Amino acid sequence: SLPRRAAYSNKGTYGRVVIIAGSANMSGAAFLSAKAAYRTGAGLVQIITPDENRAILQMQLPEAILTTYQPDGLDQESERLKIIAALSCADAIVLGPGIGKSDAARKVVDLVLENSQIPLIIDADALNILSDRFNEASLAGNDSGARISKMAQTVPEGSILTPHLKELARLLDKDLAEIKADLLGTADFCTADTDLTFVMKDARTVVAHQDERFINATGNNGMATGGSGDVLTGIIAGLLAQGSTPSEAAKLGVYIHGLAGDITAQEKSEYSLMASDLIEALPAVLR
Fold it and tell me: Which H helix or E strand runs over 215?
């Protein structure tokens, strides 16, 4: 299922990933997602992040292209055009890791949704911002179907949503225990009338698209650590940029991510596993 590599190729052959991530004092999510996308085979990775993160990301990942913006300047046309220009060149777009829920983060989410023509990978704070929007629109929990319908209308067709179960509960305005008790039933509900792919992250992650249901068998409890989800997002983006369909990128990405966790746990133990270790295990997985 891996995207094929051609002897006659260049960095453009393997796609450009654009990652909108990070906020002040939160550069790690952008770094982890971007490096994971590179390690999965993406040809180019571009990070869009607040200007405060420029220096540290240039030091951590010199291979990445950086586009930075001033969070308090997003009403200026020049700041907005920088982001729009980056989106226009993307083969895969990640929205949400570590962006927070500030006014600036909300403006960035709106800007990306208004100017994206390809499926998005929507993660973390972007999901929470959309949940808040649905609450403001009085789409209450007894009308979760309306929330899913609104989501399908809000994001580009074919987008991938990667909530952990608490984020999913917020998104649907449902009780967390109810979702845990029937995750496959929740998957049926979320994908019944949409082309969205849901990656419902749990100890055994469920990937759902239309009438397909996949329960991932790789992974371990050492992966219950900060940044693990950011790595997964980057892996999925790397696969998507190389030509995998959204549902294939999600299924394969979740499997590879868990396998990297299993290899790392064997080497370092489940206690000592860190998110960055998952990225370093990707070469062994892909070999």
Answer: strand 212-215
